[in-house]
Write a structure and sequence with these properties.
single chain; rod-shaped; alpha+beta; 1 helix
Length: about 70
């Protein structure tokens, strides 16, 4: 529509130009500018905090520790 020269092109060209450049601008903002803004101003991922009451067993699998009368048994 933006490059047409036929009947009615003088009416459609201005609208087609606005739609085309709007789509280009929207793509630029979504794909480039928004991720950069997140990197600059956003908070990064929260560091993983250790879970309370979890011990590593000998084979590397985590298991829940039982808390018995103020002591921890494994």
């Amino acid at each position: 529509m933006m490059l047409s020269t036929g009947i009615g092109a003088e009416v459609q060209k201005p609208l087609a130009t606005v739609v085309f450049f709007g789509m280009v601008c929207d793509t630029f903002l979504t794909m480039l500018a928004l991720p950069v803004m997140y990197l600059l101003f956003g908070k990064g991922p929260e560091p993983e905090s250790p879970r309370v009451g979890v011990q590593e067993s000998e084979n590397g699998a985590a298991r829940e520790a039982e808390v018995v009368a103020g002591g921890v048994t494994g």
